[in-house]
Structures are given as C-alpha cells and as structure tokens.
Amino acid sequence: MVKAIVGANWGDEGKGKITDMFAAESDVVIRFQGGSNAGHTIINDYGKFALHQIPSGVFFSHITNIIGNGVALNIPYLIKEINGLVERGVPAPKILVSERTQMLMPYHILFDQYEEERLSSRSFGSTKSGIAPFYSDKYAKIGFQVCELFDEKALMEKIISTCEYKNILLENLYHKPLIHPDELFKTMMEYRDMIRPYIADTASFLAKALREGRKILLEGQLGALKDPDFGIYPMVTSSSTLAGFGCVGAGIPPYEIKEIVAVTKAYSSAVGAGEFVSEIFEDEAQQLRTRGGDAGEYGATTGRPRRMGWFDTVATKYGCQVQGATEVVLTAIDVLGYLDEIPVCVGYEIEGEISDIFPVTSKLARAKPVYEKMPGWKTSVRGIRKFEDLPVEAQNYVLFIEKKIGVPITMVSNGPNRDEIIFRK
C-alpha cells in the first residue's frame, strides 16, 4: 500500500513530524519532488533535525529511503546531510538514489541568484537554491541524469554544448564569469564518486516492493498552493507539490496510492512572496510567529521569518481538493492557547461578492478575507491524548474547520514532539 503525506497550504504545515510518525510503520519512504530549497523539522530521541533532501525515514533502521527521479538532487548537499546525521549519533541510513534522478548543478544556484538580482523588486522570493533553473533545464532537455556520469565521452560532449548555451546568458544577460567545460567535468567526476554507492534502479526496486506488499510512504515538499499548476502562480515552486505527481516523481502506478494525508496548520504561515489573503502583520503577526512552531516560525532552510495569518478554510478546502486528500492532520493547535478569540477566514470578498471558492491568482490579488471568530480556550493543551479531553472550545475549533474543509480531521497535533498527537479514528 502507498500512502502520501502532502501539504494543503503554502508549505510549513508540519509535514516532517507527521511523515516521521508514519515512517515508523512503513518499509519505504520516498522523496518524489523538490530539492534542498525547503526543509522538514523533526524532533525525536536523537535531537532536533531540519531535513532538506533526505527522506524523513532516515531515523529508522528498517526503512529504505529513496530519492526519486522527480527530485532536484544536490549531491554535495545530500552527502553533507547524511554525514551530519551520523555525526550526531544517527545510524547510517539506507538510501537509494534513482539512476534517473537529475543533478542540480553549481551553475543552477548561480543562475538562481543572478536572476533574483536582475529582477530586484520583482523577484520571486527564491531560496536561491537553484530549483527554478534546474527544472527549466530538465524540461528543456539539457539537464544531467546521474546515470550520465558513467559515460565520460558522452558526458563531456554534453557539457561543452551546455556551456556554450549557458555562457551566452552569463556574458550578455547577467555579465558574470563564464563556465569552463573542463572545470565542470572535473566537478561532475567528484559528484560521481560521491553518489556511486547510492545509485540504484529504484523503479524495479519499488515494483518488487509493491508485489511483496510493502508499505510505501510518499513524502511531499511544500504544499498545494505552491504547485506550479494549481498554486498561486507565478509565486510557486518549480515542481509539482501534489500527491498525484508522486506516481511520476517516484515511479509507481497511480492506482497504488490508497491514502492521501493532507497536513494543515491550525493557523497559516508561508515563506516567500505571493498572495496570502488571511495574512496578518506587525505585533499581531509577531506574537503568533514567536509562539509558533517548536522555536518560532522561521524557515527551516533560510531562517527567514515566516509570514503569518489566521486559518483559511477557503485555501485549505481547495488544497485538500487538488491533493485528493482522504484525511487531514491539523497541526500546532497548542500554539493558539494564548488567544481570547480566534479569527478564521471562511470566505473571500472580491469586488463586492463573497465566495468560498479559491480563485485564480489574478482574482486572488483583489480578495479580502471574511472572518468568523471562534472563542479561544486560554489554556495549554499539550500532554492531552484524547480529543474529548481537549477544552470544549478547542474541540469546537477543530470541528468547525473540519466542516468547512469537508475532509475528516483524523489527527490533531498538540506539540512538536513525535508523541504529541491526538488520534480521532
């Protein structure tokens, strides 16, 4: 059986903890898209970790962790992450990298930086990790799969051709130093030595695992509203964040995904630019930001303060819809215990009309939030393990959200630690 853990919003929903929790009962955990541009924070017996490229199953010795063909693979970063785990006492994880995975090149990071610099005030708020240039090259068919590292003659020919194209941009658009083919070839030979122990035919491995009835977990990065097709385009990421893409990015048949768990936070947060209807500002935002997460709401990759907002049922219902969510996990409800009342965005007013349908970006830019206010519970809910033991106001808050989004909330997270979870099914 295949289960997917994905985000219902802008990312930063607390997927790392949930993936870590489900990984305990899985045989295989797969990252199927994205790169090192976002992170999953996990707190366990080994300590606190921000994972960026490696799957969240690396803390369990029984799990095979796979980096799928849909990932933007930054090889030095991956090796650094693996070594960082071992240095902190985590047993060396079992990791397989699809032979079809494409490599994020050093020039992808540079082009990302140069383009944000060129755009200036019109920039996308990129993490400057090279993700957009990487996926641009992948679909322009000038990217490099890891399997290409083992045919030196063909590799060098492709490097020369790619450098000719890239250097035209570097010289005439960005006015930056050129790429030298010989130096790039040397770097890629170093990459080959680093990644050689991990490369595998993961498609065949997964086909066998499915035949044997293994439990497989797909781990998504970011959330539905950052998807390039269904998100707040163009302020989105460059790979599909939807569970459906897990079939492509991991290499499994679509009919094998039986459960899709969408994760959403009890309030809203986002990193990067883009429309955010329920966003709040100044002191109101800073209070929520300071209390949020496990040590404040700051990007796991960039350290940037996250933009804050109240829970948005319009966006979350839409996110669950495009993800195909079969159930929802509501995280970080413990954060809201300081509030006398809690606003919830239940509609958008656009040019005098109120709707609970999430619109395209051009209309979203003109949307104003319509709020309903729920009474707060004014107490800590950490340590509670049964839903009926929550303050009635907290129960009503969960039930209100559940009704609005139309998908059952089967788990409520009331703290950052792995065991701080309330099951409702």
Could you provide a short overview of the structure?
The chain is of the alpha/beta class and 425 residues long.
Tell me the major beta sheet.
Answer: 10 strands, mixed
Shape: globular
Q: Major sheet: order of its strands?
A: 9-7-5-2-10-1-11-16-20-21
Coarse structural class = alpha/beta
Oligomer, anyone?
single chain
Describe the structure.
It is a single chain. The chain is of the alpha/beta class and 425 residues long. Helix content is 32%, strand content 23%. A 10-stranded mixed β-sheet has the order 9-7-5-2-10-1-11-16-20-21, sandwiched between helices. Strands 15, 17, 18 and 19 form a 4-stranded mixed β-sheet that branches. Strands 12-14-13 form a 3-stranded antiparallel β-sheet, with helices on one face. A hairpin with a 7-residue loop joins strand 20 (409-413) and strand 21 (421-423). Helix 3 (106-119) packs across helix 4 (131-139) and helix 5 (152-174) packs across helix 6.
